[in-house]
UniProtKB/TrEMBL annotation, chain A:
Transmembrane segment boundaries: 44-72, 103-129, 138-161, 199-217, 247-269, 299-320
Protein name, as recorded: Trehalose transport system permease protein SugA
Membrane topology term: Multi-pass membrane protein
Matches recorded under PANTHER family: BLR7065 PROTEIN, SPERMIDINE_PUTRESCINE TRANSPORT SYSTEM PERMEASE PROTEIN
Ranges in a coiled coil: none
From TrEMBL, chain B:
Family the UniProt entry places it in: Belongs to the binding-protein-dependent transport system permease family.
Occurrences of domain ABC transmembrane type-1 (ranges): 76-267
Coiled-coil ranges from the UniProt annotation: none
Annotated source species: Streptomyces platensis
TM annotation in the entry: 12-36, 75-99, 111-132, 144-163, 201-222, 242-267
GO annotation terms (biological process): transmembrane transport
Any one annotated GO CC term: plasma membrane
Protein name, per record: Carbohydrate ABC transporter permease
Amino acid sequence: MNAVTSSATVPRSPAPPPAGPRTGPVPRGGGPARVSRRKRARTGWFFASPALLTIAAVTVFPVLFSVVLSFADVRLEYGGFRLLSLTGDHYAAVLSSPEWRHALLFTFGFTAVTVLLELVLGTAAALVLERLGAARGWVLAVLLLPWALINVVAAQLWGYLFNGTYGGLTWLFEQILGHQPDILGQPASAMGAMVVVDVWKTTPFVAIVVLAGLMLIPGDVYEAAEIDGAGAWTTFWKVTLPQLRPIMAIAVLFRILQAFGIFDLPFVLTQGGPGTATESLAILGYKTLFQNLDIGRGAAVATTSAVIVIGCCLLFLRVFRTQADEGGRA
Amino acid sequence: MNRRTPASGIRRYLNAVNLGGLAMVVLSTLPLYWMIASSFKGPGEISAAPPGLVPESATLGNYAEAFVRNGIGRYLLNSVLVSSVSTVAVLGLSFFAGYALARTPLRGRGAIMTTLLMLSVFPPIALVVPLFLLERQLGLLNSYAGLIVPYVALNLPFAIWIMRNYLVGIPRELEEAATVDGAGPLRTVLTVIAPLARPGLFTAGIFTFTATWAEFLLALTFNSEDGHRTVPVGIALFTSQYTVPYGTLFAGAVAATVPIGVLVMIFRRSIVSGMTSGAVKG
């Protein structure tokens, strides 16, 4: 879920200081009752430090530790572990392994296809939602249900629908094709099944975010387009879409990051199979770590995906920011 | 703002919109309906082809099986405990941190906000390796604390963002008045700001609760022992035991979905505004 709303404000960071006390109202009673700036800063650190220290201890420190591990030989021992030596071998081994390349390719492909589909379908759904009138609140509530469903439950449910012998969808395909397809048993259709489940579960999220963007477009823009004689299609491409671009960028960024880290869906629906067809980077990292108990190499796999995610995030924010600036000036 | 359409097309237009809305509702709910219906089907019915839309002889046997034999009740209790404690802790910590970032002159505020954003998109797989080793060393595997502590840390960045964005919008004059009246910072925050921040707390709370309720990777790797399993792990491991007992599985899945479904329906306004308010401010 996270980060959608948050990334929204980032392109403009660092946040402008709030219209400070200087312009504030004169305190009652005349005297300079304002607390000194240094004292207020101390209060701020007092309030912020429990949260910031928790984050530092439980995420920042482990991430740094993980980078060390990715260069290390580690042995698991009863109740603990021991660092044996530091090497750079894990990265060479990971980057040159066909498993990693395949997982990377699959993860990129899955991310690209699902995010594109979700953006197109979500925008279409948002356009419908915007015009729904009285029923909109009710439909929105229903759309939240797949979004709120636990990923693992969604994977089990669709695993049943795709089941090779008696799944509802298998039966449906049999009526159309004339034979029973082994949907989860063939690489191509197994990948397709994963895309279907992800799109089913996450399109509502994109739709709701895009709907928020639609509501923000001022009505007079449309009136101007109407006076100019623009048809519905032209209005959509020339007016609606450009106005939606910032909020779509946020939704897309967030979806990219989430799809890139996908774990529970392939873990339950296909176990990464058939073979390694649907093995994502997260699944590969998990298998390296917990099935092969190869700690250093698992850490290296995890670090590569973290680097890619952070890199994508920074690149995206940079591109999006300049685009937004140009749009603002035009 | 309502969009104007050529009067001649209104009728057809409305129909297309309504059909689209109907399609969304059907596509969203049909698989869910299938899950609920199947949870009441007997073993013969569940594997019948063609599958029936309505259970012919509805039974509660699957639920009995899920709760008695498969211990789904235990997993539910574990999940309720882990998610509730995590949510309360996240709300407490993020409220104060959000206030500090919104209202006090912290140096390096921009850097803190950017770091928080980076952390809230960080892939969990990169944290599993080191946290697993650390928890192993500390003897925290298969304990409630072993999940609650990382859940709090992982959900804090986003909750702080929500709280900060919400608190920035509260007029300064209110707390200044309290300060003038002689209240210390802590008292001002607790008595003046906290009641005003309730909608923001609801939003941050519901996002944290749904995220921790569904979390799978850490729960699978840290708490795999039966007594401390959470609901997602319990449901995922249904399959690996023997041939999939779908009826029991779906009874468990429905039991896992009802609490979160009820919460989402109650707080749906907070969810929609949480998804959108930050974007509006951007």
